[in-house]
Amino acid sequence: MKRPSTRTAAFLLFSLLCLTLVAGCLGRTKPPFIMDQYTLDYAPPADTADKPLEELIRVERFAVAPAFNSTSMVIRKGQYRFDTYDYSRWRVNPADMVTGFVLRDITRAGIFKGTYSWYDSDLSRYILEGYVDEFCETEGKGLLSVRVTLVDTKANNPVEQVVFQRQYTHSAPVGGNSPDALAAALSAAMKELSGKLVTDIAAALRKDVEK
User: By mean pLDDT, which of 8-17, 53-62, 92-101, 182-191 is the weakest?
Assistant: First the structure.
């Protein structure tokens, strides 16, 4: 019996490999994986100050609770259980989103002569710090809770430097179980929260000027 030549065996092996690759490609019927990305979106407040305060403020990057320290769109299911939307994510971390909108809204309100982010200036008299405690969907609402501290660096000691420290908790109904509805609800909650924060900062500064 005549044995096949080395060239013939190599040709057969190559043909088998090509058939395997073709079959694998033809078997791929699953559509490509697509991840939708979301962010908050609402109109900034109008300029409410008659005359800006001759001071500067720096908005530090807010910290965030570990349960929400990711781009996942979180759904609180109960006391011990969380879930997320499978194919949807926040565009950026909630800490960065909340910080960015607070910075924008304080700037647009015209309270200060200059408003800076955490990497812009170290010369500001006032510093705003924050901690995002809640940023999720729960019981049919978009829930946002942020702890904020306004600091006056010109005060004599650390205790006197704290102008105020307050918890802001706001929510809005989620009109359907979807990431779009959650983004809309948290946008409404953020608008309300930011508006209240800007009002409180302006009131605190007026009291400080009147002293």
Answer: 8-17
The CATH architecture of the domain made up of 54-210 is 3-Layer(aba) Sandwich (3.40)
Cα separation, 150 vs 204, whole angstroms? 9
Token pair, residue 144, equals 């946002």
Cα separation of 119 and 99, whole Å?
Answer: 13
Cα–Cα distance, 143 to 184 (Å, whole number): 11
Q: Are strands 126-138 and 141-152 parallel, antiparallel or unpaired?
A: antiparallel
What's residue 99's pLDDT?
A: 98
Using the Cα atoms of residue 197, residue 154, residue 62 and residue 47 in order, give the sign of their dihedral.
positive
Q: At what angle do helices 94-109 and 179-210 cross, to 10 degrees?
A: 50
